[in-house]
Amino acid sequence: MKKLIVSVMFALSATLLTTTAIANTDTVALEHANVDISNKASLQRGVKYYANYCMGCHSLAYSRYNRIATDLDLTNEQVVKNLIFTRNADGEPENPGALMKNAMSPKHSAEWFGAPPPDLTLEARVRSPDWIYSYLKAFYLDPTRPMGVNNTVFPNVGMPHVLWELQGLQEKHCTKEGEGAHAVEHCEMKVVKQGSMTPMEYDQMARDITNFLAYVGEPAQNTRKGYGIAVLLFLSLFAVVAYFLKKEYWKDVH
Ligand code: HEC
């Protein structure tokens, strides 16, 4: 038994150590996305942007159109008109109850971009909302890359900067201070071409898309938190009742 406990503890600490090691490899400072998945207007804008700019490459294959319609107060007609671009075998728009797949073939896209665009249903849970938000802001011009851009949060990413017309284009300029192993590199982004949005508008857009992905990763979050509070309230009220019940039962025993 002792041996078993020791080996379980050893396995646990080894897992902890490796996860910390993985987390530590992430050296870029991330910006705070400040997402709020109870903000429906932001989620509605997020899903619209996602449908227009991301869905062509990234499916949300673990989510259904009608679930999003219900949660975001959209009608089925709005969903069919604005979100569903894929057609079923009869050439009709996909049923709103369908999973949000897209028509991109993983084999071809891997050839085009070097890596297939992954499904993003669980992206906010895998990477965190702050990561996605920072990533959407971190594209910079790099002529050595096949798409002409690179990304400070995801170096050598295969994705083109699909929002460049809105954000504009930026260059990364780095200066080195110090010598050898002690050299510290400071980098900053310089805008070289203005986009159609102001930086504040673009931040808001990146936040809305991130917010939508944070919601889609766990659509029941809002209700889950509500249940949690209700359960805690019930338990604390019940504790009082249980206390008096206990007093009543033990009254005659003492
Ligand atoms: C033209 C196709 C294309 C479009 C459109 C596109 N992406 Fe991508 N995206 C890619 C590819 C390809 C990769 C994988 C890159 C790699 O692994 O090198 C990627 C990777 C990503 C990743 C990182 C995934 C990971 O590995 O964790 C995120 C996040 C992401 N995209 C978000 C978005 C968002 C948000 C949009 C819409 C604003 C979008 N993408 C639009 C092609 C696209």
TrEMBL record:
It comes from the Bacteria. Residues 41-220 form the Cytochrome c domain. It comes from Thiothrix fructosivorans. GO terms for cellular component: membrane. Heme c binds at residues 54, 57-58. Residues 1-23 form the signal peptide. It is found in: Membrane. Its cofactor is heme c. Keywords: Heme, Iron, Membrane, Metal-binding, Signal, Transmembrane, Transmembrane helix. Binds 1 heme c group covalently per subunit. This is Cytochrome c1. PANTHER family: CYTOCHROME C1, CYTOCHROME C1, HEME PROTEIN, MITOCHONDRIAL. GO terms for molecular function: electron transfer activity; heme binding; metal ion binding. The chain crosses the membrane at residues 226-245.
